Amino acid sequence: MSLDKNRSTLALLALAISAFAIGTTEFISVGLLPLIAEDLNISVTLTGLTVTLYALGVTFGAPVLTAVTSGIPRKTLLVWIMLVFIIGNSLAALSSGIVMLLTARVISALSHGVFMSIGSTIAADIVPENRRASAIAIMFSGLTVATVTGVPLGTFIGQQLGWRAAFISIVVIGIVAFIANMILVPSHLRKGGKIQIRDQMKLVTNGRLLLAFMITALGYGGTFVVFTYLSPLLHDITGFKETTVAFILLLYGIAIAIGNVIGGKAANRKPLTALLWMFVLQALILFLLTFTAPYKIPGLITIFGMGLLAFMNVPGLQVYVVTLAERYAPRAVDIASAVNIAAFNAGIAIGAYLGGIVTDAIGLIHTAWIGAVMVLAAVVLTIWSMVLERRQKTAAHAGTCLSIH
Q1: What is the b/e burial string over 5-16, where b = at least 16 CB atoms within 10 angstroms of the residue's CB?
Q2: Is 187 helix (H, G, I), strand (E, B) or coil?
Q3: Fewer CB within 10 Å, N- or C-terminus of the chain?
Q4: How far, in Å, CA of 140 to CA of 159, rounded?
């Protein structure tokens, strides 16, 4: 079901606003950790659970809840997701202790997981097939804009008015997104069919889809080995002042936004080929950073390149998984999308955890080439996927020829 261009653009804008709200809440507590710890009189490590539990909520909640809610009409589900999001962040703003705050973070994370999975399929559904990757990129641009502006702004608000004010701001954005979805997203969206256990099993047992999920986790997660520790790297290795580091992170966010748009356009026709080149460039940039990080100008150029490629693969990875799911498990497309969102978050978790081990064991500078190795693993798996794709086409062509003769 594709709409005319103006209506589909407005619907995609509503989805992007929702993604902006969700993207801001995902990363907001990173900037607010010291403020929350001080106010609640707890350690920063304990406060760090607001980030950890959120990521786990997305990773495990996305596939399960998408399966449970598969029979609900897409627009109805979208409206409920934003209501849950508003409730979760309102609870966070009202929290007087860490237990209530962690509960609020998990509730918000559950809405995040389902939104990102059905949001991708709604975006792909309301445009013609040749614009699918671009449509998903527009939706995901809300996340990238959140990375650029939402998180720094939320942190600033938290510093000026208290950390709870940051969550109140997110609630306001959530209400705007809720209204935008009600008005702009069409009601007659394709229904997500009831998902049978056997359809879910197809996702778990299909080698091609498992390979795609592994590519997502490794290719997307590789950058997070470095990105998680980018602030100390810029300060301790490159020698930038803390105030300058904040400005560089803003530039990094802008690079992410540009890369996301390029990635959407590049992946429209041949997602696998586009992904292969993106991963190769990403691995090269990360290797290069190991040598340029100690020098300010070369280091900055390399970091901008890293930002440019960090989210560039997102639209291609989503479109590739949806395409494979339509071929191998057509009744579980939403679940496939949700599992891929879980794979993105698993990649972040693996990358960040690996970055911590590397930093403690051999030093910050080594996070760059370790991240490159992780991305190189995705390059190998992407080439393997391309070989399998060619084999399938050759077999299909041979079968057609045989049936003609």
Answers
A1: eeebeebbbbbb
A2: coil
A3: C
A4: 28
Q: What is the pTM of this model?
A: 0.74
Over residues 343-358, mean pLDDT: 80
Task: In whole angstroms, give the CA distance from residue 78 to residue 17.
Answer: 13
Question: Which residue carries 């301790």 as its tokens?
Answer: 236
| pLDDT given for residue 400 in this prediction | 62
First to last CA, the chain: 37
Q: Are 253 and 230 in contact (CB under 8 A)?
A: no
Q: Look at residues 363, 340, 327 and name the one whose alpha carbon lies nearest to residue 214.
A: 340
CB–CB of 305/257 below 8 Å?
no
Q: State which amino acid sits at residue 52.
A: T
Place of tokens 């990105």: 227
Higher pLDDT among residues 51 and 191, named by residue:
51
- Among 168, 185, 195, 1, smallest CA distance to 77 is for 185
Nearest CA-CA partner of 166 in 345, 13, 257, 30: 30
Distance CA 182, CA 189 (A): 13
Query: Which residue is it, tokens 């969700």?
Result: 22
Per-residue model confidence as pLDDT tens digits over 64-105? 787 788 778 888 889 999 999 999 999 999 999 999 999 999
Query: How high is the mean pLDDT of the chain?
Result: 84
- Burial category of 391 from C-beta neighbours within 10 Å (exposed 0-12, middle 13-18, buried 19 and up): exposed
